Every structure is written in C-alpha cells, then in structure tokens.
Amino acid sequence: MNLSNKRWFQVLVGFILVFLLIYLIYITRFIFDPLFKYVGAVAFPFIAAGLLFYLTKPILKLLMKYKVPKLVAILLVFILIIVVGYVFTIFVIPIAQDQYTRFINNIPSMIKGAEDVIDYIQDNQKIIPDEVYNTIDNIMANLQTYFEGFMTFLLGFITQVIGFVFSLVLVPFFLFFMFKDGDKFIPFVTQIFEPKKASNLRNLLRKIDHTLSAYIQGQLLVSLSIGIMLFIGYLIIDLNYALALALFGMMMCIVPFIGPFIAVIPAVIVGVFQDPMNVVWIALIMIIAQQIEGNFISPNIMGHVLRIHPLTIITIILAAGSIAGFIGILFAVPFYAVVKTIIVHFWETYQDTRKNKEDALI
Known about the structure:
Elements: H1 7-27, H2 33-65, H3 70-124, H4 130-141, H5 143-167, H6 171-181, H7 185-190, H8 195-236, H9 242-252, H10 259-263, H11 265-274, H12 278-301, H13 310-361
Helix pairs in contact: 2-3, 2-6, 3-6, 3-9, 8-9, 8-12, 8-13, 11-12
C-alpha cells in the first residue's frame, strides 16, 4: 500500500500543515493586525451577547413552543432581561455596595485585631520557634502593602469593567440578530459542502452548540444557586456583609472546581473577627451547598454532557491561568469542552467509516 494512503501518515501531514499555517500567521502577523484589532473591539459584546443568548434561549424556545411569533418572543425576552437588570440594579447593588464600603472601612480595625492576637500569642507562648514569629512579623509589617496592592489590582479591574460597559451598547444588537438569524448559521456554513460532508458538519456544529449551551447555562445557574444558598446560610448565622459575600461567592463559583474554595475565603476572614465559631458554620454552609449542587443541581442542569474529570479541570485551569490569567481561567474549560467535542466527533466519524469499509469487504 502506498504510504500516502495510510491513515497515520495523513494525520501526521495534517498536523504538520496546521503547525506550518500557525507559524506563517505568526511571522506575518503584522498583516493581520487590523483584523486582530477588529476582533478585539467586538469580542466583549459578542461574548456577552453569546452568554445572554445561551441563558435565555430556553425561554425563547418555550415561548415559540406556545405559538408566540418569533419577533414577539424576542421582544418578551428583551423585556425580561431589562426587568431582571432593573431589579438587580435597584434592590441588590445598592445593598451590596453599602456592605462592601463598610467592609473596606472596617479593614484597618481587622488588621489591628490580628496584630493584637499575634502580640498576645508572642507574649504568652514560648514553644513556637523564633523563625515562625519572624515570618509572622514580616507578614504583618507588610500587610498594609499587600492590601494596597490588592486594592490597586481591584481598581484596575474596575477600570477595565467600566471600559467594557461602553461596549455594552452593541450587546443588544448582537443578541437580537443571534435570536433572529441564529438558526440560519448552520445551513449557511454547510451549503458549500456536498450532502454527506454537510450532514457530518451539521452534526458537529449541533454537538458544539449543545456543549456550549450545557456548560454556559449549567455553570451560571449552578453559580446562582450556590450564591442563593450561601446568602441564606450567611443570614441564618447572622454573618456581617452577607449579601456582598454571597455575591462574591456566586461570581467565584463561575470558575469550575476551585471557585467554591476561593468563594469562602472572605467569608471566613469576616467570620473569624465576628465570632471564631463562624468558621465552622461557614464551612458547614459551603459543604451543604456543594452537596446539594453536586447531587441535585448539576446532574439535572448539565447532565453528563461535558464528562470532564476533576483532575483534568484542575490541570486546565492551572495551565490557562499561567498563560492568560483570569480570562484564561474563565474560558479554559468551555474551550477544552468544545475541542474535546470536535475530536470525539471526528474519531467517531473515522470509526464509522472504517467499520463501513470493513463491512463492505466482507
């Protein structure tokens, strides 16, 4: 058999051509600068509209199922988004902002309390080695510097968010056309292919759409559920800044697997200064929330669409964080899920083709 007809050789040549294409794009990237700038300008409104599209698509489908005209259904979805945004802005954000301001103003007294505790331990405990005290003293001496650095980072992040707000003007337009013409995308892409390949590509695009839909709807709804459960739990134990801490926990839970661990850190810090016993209650609240989410919410929302092992998620998040920072952490898992869907699809296609050839030879 000719070497060029062997499957492994064709795959190898394909990989080489892909890497050559990437290398050529890299060395001629100055040609693509205008394109990259254009993509960067529309990336945020496109991604924001895409998130809203996948979140509200079930509502649009439900309305259309009951014979509501498509344009009317789109208008109702937009009204729902506006109402939810208005309620959130009027009733939730002011309370959270007030709690956040009080928390920031209370930080100096919290730092002073921590210093008093350390001083007490140093004065009444001689078992701990001096090196440990020196390390603690160094941390406490620079605690204000660390906090100022964190606040500088936070202010820079807020500045970027404000810049993104100006891009929000484009989001409704993107979202409207996604709703209106989204079902035309797959036929438009597949029309240039022969029927068999077009059918294969349609199946692939539907699988990618299903994967993205399951991940985005699932992860955001899971985060919302955990945020509500944390808020209820914090109210029960009368934790200070309950709403702000629950909102922080909800946002952090968007990050798969490691998000819940980050979510409770501010709550634990606040709880320690309010009442050390709160640490136990906060841990118990998070465990209960995680158990409810893991056993009831996630299986019913995401199902088994993603099928990604937790160790794989940790590895992906660590790698993406070192390469692209927080943005990489947010988009690493859905990107991996899409790539996995594509690879699995082509592998199944190859297996089916191979089986059909074997059946034909029998």
